[in-house]
Amino acid sequence: MSKRGWFVLTAIALGLSLVAAGCGGSSKKSSGGGGTTAAAQVKGTISMVAVWTGPEGAAIQAVLNGFKAKNPGVTIKYKAAKDPGQVLTTAVQGGNPPDIAALPSPGLMKGFVAQGALKPIDFAKSDISSNFSADWLKFGTVNGKLYGLFFKGANKSTVWYNVHAFKNAGVTAPKDWKDLLASAKTISASGTPAYSIGGADGWTLTDLFENIYLRTAGAAKYDQLADHKIPWTDPSVKTAMKDMSQVLGDSKNINGGASGALQTNFPDSVTAVFTNPPKAAMIFEGDFVPGVVAGQSKAKPVTDYNVFPFPSVNGQGAGDVVGGGDVIVMFKDTPASEALIKYLATPEAASIWAKRGGFSSPNKNLNLSVYPDDITRTTAGALAKAAVFRFDMSDLAPAKFGGDAEFTDLQNFLKSPSDVNGAAAKLEKDAAAAYKAGG
After folding, report:
1. How far apart are CA 196 and CA 421, in angstroms?
2. What is the rounded average pLDDT of the residues 324-328?
3. Residues 6+ positions from 383 with CB-CB distance below 8 Å
4. 8 Å CB contact between 266 and 201
5. Which residues touch 245 (CB under 8 Å, ≥6 apart)?
6. Could you give the domains of the chain?
7. Tens-place pLDDT, residues 217-250
8. Residues 337, 105, 88, CA angle at the centre, nearest 5°?
């Protein structure tokens, strides 16, 4: 899902398969994944590497089985890797990458493009353009060429709440930022802290900032900050941090206060909201939140917990989505690989996993009725239909900043949320160093 380590705690050992791809008399460009006569002629072996294991591994295998049913002449050898970026880097250096891989961020994709390791997938551009929004197409494009197809997505513009805590306080799901802040005070006054924050995992704080920033600064500024074309001391950053301090600034509203939040990891922050009685009323995080406590909590959707979209701020950003996604890339261009890429771009392929749950598709033409519950239909629908989508900014940044220094800087901001100028200056210092170094 992203570079975050907890997403990939369980995985199986990686074994890369060599390619033996051929074509039954048809050219590469005649291949397709939709079950046409040309697609049926495709033959060969595809090796594929991704992070998905356990139930997710079974789900992607079901998708690949769907492709196999349409292309019986193709054999797919799927292997899971705990850290696909590291494994694939080693494979590329050794001259033995798989045919296809799923990467957890556009940053990794861009790195492999820079190495000349990836093959463009422009042959599937019309398929992807018809099934995905322009934003998703943009994030799969490098230097004018299409390299990535985002098959699995994550909506990080969601706020999960304990239904009983809200009812006890007499509040409903907030519609905007002002309403959110007022509801938080009412909830805290009722005896339950409003927010649960997993501050020990600094990436949760980056997600909160990014949602606020997209709504207050707009998409163009978001892109500029993501590319470090404007500094973190820009007035737009300080405005967003002031708004963020409205959440972080009152420790009484946070479960455990600021010090407690800094000692709480993400899974425990979710449990605090999903337990009975709740230790906090709501948590700002992505559509993967319920999966964190699956099998551990007796909380039932709608009855015990529910979700609302991250609210607009000062009338801006309603419906905007910050998220993540796994991007399918191609290391070896064969007729079989092209057929699989085109198949994965279809609503049919996405529906196979969507029916099983634990999945959100960026494919805008996927019928939302295939999702197993109303909550997933809501969060996945918002992801696919968003007029404005932006990728998690920290995942786009050099790892020394987006995966390291930014976490620490925002954790320090959680300690002293009134020091907006100092926090912005430290973020800019660390960002400038990381972008200059390029890593």
Report:
1. 25
2. 95
3. 153, 154, 155, 287, 321, 323, 360, 361, 362, 389
4. yes
5. 413, 417, 418, 420
6. 5-155+324-391 (3.40.190.10), 158-318+397-437 (3.40.190.10)
7. 999 999 999 999 999 999 999 999 999 999 999 9
8. 55
Q: How many CA atoms lie within 13 A of 291 on its CB side?
A: 15
Query: Token digits for 102?
Result: 């799923």
d(CA 414, CA 249): 8
How many residues in the chain? 439
- Two structure tokens written together for 385: 């239909």
φ and ψ at residue 275, rounded to 5 degrees? -90, 170
pLDDT for res 205 = 98
Cβ 307 vs Cβ 378: under 8 Å: yes
How many C-beta atoms surround the C-beta of residue 217 within 10 A? 22
Structure tokens at 430: 């660390």
Span 81-95, pLDDT tens digits? 999 989 999 999 999
Q: Is the peptide bond before 417 cis (omega within 30 degrees of 0)?
A: no
* 305-309 sheet: strands from edge to edge: 282-284, 158-162, 305-309
